[in-house]
Amino acid sequence: MSKTETDKGQDQEDLGAAGSQLSTAPQEEIAGGLPGLGVIGWARWFWRQLTSMRVALLLLLLLSLGAIPGSLIPQTGADLNKVDDFRKAHKTLAPIYDKLGLFHVYSSVWFSAIYILLFVSLIGCIIPRTWQFVGQLRGRPPGAPRRLTRLPAYTTWRTTAEPDEVREAALALLKKRRFRAHIAGDAVAAEKGYVREVGNLAFHIALIVLLVAFASGQMFKSDGTKLMVEGDGFSNALPMYDDMKSGSMFTPDDLVPFSFGLKDFHATYEASGPNRGTPRTFRAKITYSEGAYGKQKSTSIKVNEPLKIGDAKVYLVSHGYAPVITVRDGRGKEVYHDAVPLLPLDGNVTSNGVIKVMDGYRDGKGNKDQLGFQAFFVPTFDPKSGTMLSQFPALLNPLLAVNAYHGSLGVDAGQSQNVYQLDTKRMKQFKDAKGQLLKKLLRPGDTLQLPNGAGSITFEKDVKEWAGFEIVQEPGTGWALGGALVAIFGLAASLFIQRRRVWVRAVRGADGVTVVEMAGLGRSESAKVPEELGDLAGTLYEQAPGAPDPDGSSATNEATPDSEVVPAEGAEK
């Protein structure tokens, strides 16, 4: 055996229980290799590897790396249209991504496997460490090792005070400094910094809380959108949504019961300068009620200032215009009158959409028919620009361009249609006197007469605004936030607080004079332990001052508040 191995064995023998770990982290197996053959042995070895900190950090890293494709590649749960576009644009990559589950990363088998293994690893690591820490709290700090000079921080001096007096003074001093201390034999044993282990365990428990909150949020979440024109109402029921995405465990009964109505939408924009047209404020004034019979309340929803009702949040996400349109048939009967939401195409709210008249319309001969109009709207038209593009997002000079069709809209077959698109396969164009497609630019109050007495379409002077809302319900967000905060504070405690032990031994020497020894041991190399030991030694020295050496000279190894603590090697003089 080498000298180094001999010294390490001697150190371990000298320190005894005092040199045990100052952490609840499981110790790595140093020798022995893998366990013997057998199912139980291999299972035990696999469990130890899975619950080790090294594997937990590796799984956490894999989880972070696995989430990267979910943010770079379109996901079916977020936007199915983008996934379809990606498939069309990448004929070679798309099949590979399908096999790897990259279009649904967070519900893929491999991502779930990493997630579950990390969950099991954390639980398997935390439970034994928690019981071990509880046992340490219920116990007492271990007694002093036989040779305190082996410790990293050490000092000693001689005093005329009695050993019992020194130990009592040291016990009172250490308790005053919030050490857990007791007298063990001829020494005082003290320990401090348990908050470090509390923070360490809190950090790992918070990770589990985060994982559970994330999983429950994904399984029970709902995310729907609703477009509302001023004056419209909404009740939080599944049929009321324009679009809805939800988790695998979500049911309609999980929706928070509430309703709200859009009273008014107000937007302001920069009127001049380089940022002309930039939105300054978006505010939707609403009335809402909680539950089926809740009292009506008024509030405003702004961008990044959602309405919160229980676990549900209502966000303001979009805005546009809804010109009020009136359509009359060949006999002058009003068959359509409504505000038509149009979709913005640019930052100045140039918009387009369609108007569909499905029921009640009769042409000039009294025959039943259906009408369809393609609409193009600009809130601020500038004749000098020479283009049908809005020059400002506010309603300064609105103009509506329409063209007309008649025939079958294709809705009688019972198939769903996009309300913003017009299927003209079974429709005919209205022609003007020159045989061209009938179209006209309408200002508020203008009317377009359809040929052959087929009726008319009027752009009313009233132009309403619409607002798009996103209703998100994610249970567990509060737990996730709490877990994140606890994880931060737990990590800070485990990094900046050091768990350490201090021993004060006072025994009578061969010449009848009391010899005081003080030593400290920290979990890791740190300047805090020697500094703290020096401060404690200086305070205790005032109560047990140094005694002269046998030759009559003053003590040369006195510990004063300004004296530097002697390191372990060669500490004795």
TrEMBL record:
Membrane topology field: Multi-pass membrane protein
UniProt entry keywords in alphabetical sequence: Cytochrome c-type biogenesis, Membrane, Transmembrane, Transmembrane helix
GO CC list: membrane
Domain ResB-like: 53-533
InterPro entries from the UniProt entry: Cyt_c_bgen_Ccs1/CcsB/ResB (IPR023494), ResB-like_domain (IPR007816)
PANTHER family in UniProt: CYTOCHROME C BIOGENESIS PROTEIN CCS1, CHLOROPLASTIC
Membrane spanning residue stretches: 55-73, 109-131, 201-220, 479-497
Domain of life of the organism encoding this protein: Bacteria
GO biological process, one term: cytochrome complex assembly
Organism: Streptomyces griseochromogenes
Region (Disordered): 527-573
The name this protein goes by in its record: Cytochrome C biogenesis protein
Subcellular location field: Membrane
